Amino acid sequence: MREHIPVSSIMTKTIIGLTRSDDLKRAEMLFNRHRIKHIPVVAGECIIGMLSYTDLMRISIPEVAGNDNVGLDSVVLNSFTIEQVMVKNVVTVAPETSIKDVALILANREFHALPVVDKGDLVGIVTTTDLLNYFIREF
């Protein structure tokens, strides 16, 4: 396996994003429609946060556990904003960061996705799935 391959060669370049003015119902729809687990929150081309499906589940647990036949699209999603739920201090990587270094960050920090930023602009996202697919191709 080659050690210095840049993450830009395996990252997802088509970005599904949210803005701080979007609501959590839209986020849930995007998670479900695109079958993804992480969505960058952007202001223009700059990343300002990251929202994961787990973040939505975390605020919805009491509701789901109550078993009132109410889904995630109920009052809970309307009670919070994207900005209240998203992770704000986002760790990012550059397109030239090696796949090995990205794997180390994901493993050590227990993340499942990293935004890829070039000169302040969000240019992609790399997930554990991207890494696994790369390793499968290599072996």
Report on this structure:
This protein is α+β, with helices and mostly antiparallel strands and 139 residues long. It has one domain: CBS-domain. It has six helices and four strands; from the N terminus they run H-E-E-H-H-H-H-E-E-H. A two-stranded antiparallel sheet has the order 1-2. The longest helix is centred in the middle third of the chain and has 14 residues. The radius of gyration is 16 Å and the shape is globular. The model has no long low-confidence stretch (mean pLDDT 88).
The stretches of 5 or more residues where confidence is low (pLDDT under 50) are: none
The major sheet is characterized as: 2 strands, antiparallel
CATH C-level name: Alpha Beta
The coarse overall form would be globular
How do the helices and strands follow one another from N- to C-terminus? HEEHHHHEEH
Corresponding CATH architecture: Roll
Number of strands: 4
- The CATH homologous superfamily name equals CBS-domain
Which structural category fits the helices and strands?
alpha+beta
Terminal residue distance:
8 Å
Strand order of the largest sheet: 1-2
Name the average pLDDT.
88
Organism: Algibacter lectus
Domain CBS: 11-69, 86-139
InterPro entries: CBS_dom, CBS_dom_sf, Diverse_CBS-Domain
Keywords: CBS domain
